[in-house]
Amino acid sequence: MSSYERFAHVYDELQVDIPYDKYVEWVLQHAPCNQFPNLLDIGCGTGVLSLLLARAGYSVSGIDLSENMLSIAAERFADVGLHVPLFCMSMDELEGFEALDVVTIAIDSLNYVVQEKAVYATLERIYDALKDGGQLFFDVHSLYKMNDIFLDSPFTYDDGNISYVWHTEPGDFEHSVIHQMTFFVRDAVSDLYERFDEEHIQRTFPIEQYMTWLRTIGFNHVEVTADFTDDAPEYESERIFIRAVK
Description:
By secondary structure, the protein is an alpha/beta fold. It has helices at 3-14, 20-30, 48-55, 67-79, 116-129, 143-149, 207-217, and strands at residues 38-42, 59-64, 86-88, 100-105, 130-141, 155-158, 162-170, 176-186, 193-203, 221-226, 239-245. A seven-stranded mixed sheet has the order 3-2-1-4-5-11-10, with helices on both faces. A four-stranded antiparallel sheet has the order 6-7-8-9, covered by helices on one side.
């Protein structure tokens, strides 16, 4: 089993503190499913948010770059009798979708796209896939989180079943971070721990840059909030939420 495949199997346990229900509320507030039914969840991962959105009434499809994540998502949907089309593709090469009502890129998935031209291509392809009046919802790490919080490593975690040591260092790009994580995962049968290593690179951009890209592409309304609230971002906000309307 590859390290990333192993990571896919522990990913959900590491995301238990994410308030996915608030993400669903955010989308429902601005794009109720009876008016905006067709939703694409980009970077859907193991399908936790996709399932909640489907249960809220949306007709959901999902894409992700990881086949292993998508395999877990497919099992999740099958277990509850839901059919959610899933596709393995990079978000900056999005194709095959049209007349979408809603697109989501949740839980800093866009920060894994580190090249400026690829971020722009992602937003542009989403614009082309949305119908007029369609809406894009996404969140990204703030500059403060990327430049201050993340670089205050090492971080450690241990719940008895999963342990990790997480080191960070500045990446090659401005406002980017290299995450280097060593995991120890307990096998329920042998009671032994398996070690595997992960390296992830993330990059964020100033809020003004995202807004400029969105408006240049053609989005006619852009709204920015922070940290799962309706409040405008402040210096120490950690997660920036952006909603754009075509």
